[in-house]
Amino acid sequence: xxxxxxxxxxxxxxxxxxxxxxxxxxxxxxxxxxxxxxxxxxxxxxxxxxxxxxxxxxxxxxxxxxxxxxxxxxxxxxxxxxxxxxxxxxxxxxxxxxxxxxxxxxxxxxxxxxxxxxxxxxxxxxxxxxxxxxxxxxxxxxxxxxxxxxxxxxxxxxxxxxxxxxxxxxxxxxxxxxxxxxxxxxxxxxxxxxxxxxxxxxxxxxxxxxxxxxxxxxxxxxxxxxxxxxxxxxxxxxxxxxxxxxxxxxxxxxxxxxxxxxxxxxxxxxxxxxxxxxxxxxxxxxxxxxxxxxxxxxxxxxxxx
Length: 305
Hints:
By secondary structure, the chain is α/β, with parallel strands linked by helices. Helix content is 50%, strand content 13%. The chain has helices at 16-35, 68-78, 84-100, 105-119, 124-139, 145-156, 169-178, 208-221, 238-241, 254-263, 283-304, and strands spanning 54-58, 160-168, 183-187, 189-192, 195-200, 229-232, 246-250, 266-268.
């Protein structure tokens, strides 16, 4: 469906599983937040002291370079949660994400299925603790300073700032806390007595489910979405961006860039150049380099063992 089909928030209606995923993520985000208790060119926004406004930030390639789930997978591999063949699969999915510059639903689903199978039977508290370590090891240095400054502008104006991501909510909450944000909306994995079952609550927080999560959180928090802002790099997040009065395209993919220009949305690009695949590195060569690097890392790991 063309991007313009997303202009009306519910024109392409969310499935029951999207609604469930959104509501579950919003509830998890509010619970965590309760427990934890503008730029020069645009001085008029965010509005100082507007407690009915908030900001919603996509994570992958908007706040952080690359995919959070991939970096989390690297950390779990380091801790021997899974074997080298799964690492190679994560590496391929990350290469696709970085070179294509878009979120491919099939690749993302494969990554999430892999992650769910890996964490099944582990305790939630264990993964939360490991997430803190993995943030320091792989994620902290990949935060985009420009996007971080935008989030801080909202915080300085007295507004709440939420991450909204398809990554597991436990990872998202770690990142939000480390960045000093209010909280995070993320994919909710089912757990029983504090142990992961290997299933999701609803579906991954992606596309329409993100919009449902933001809608549910805004209703619970008493926010006016027309006064809120949202930031994303992906056309998959047009449903979320279309909900708010101040949508921003950050490091946008080609479809989102086109859509943003048509609707006069604000754009920001914090990449040092256009996408890696478009600055003289053929896609096949780029994938080969990543695959080669992964193979070398695996070989080195085996020798050390």
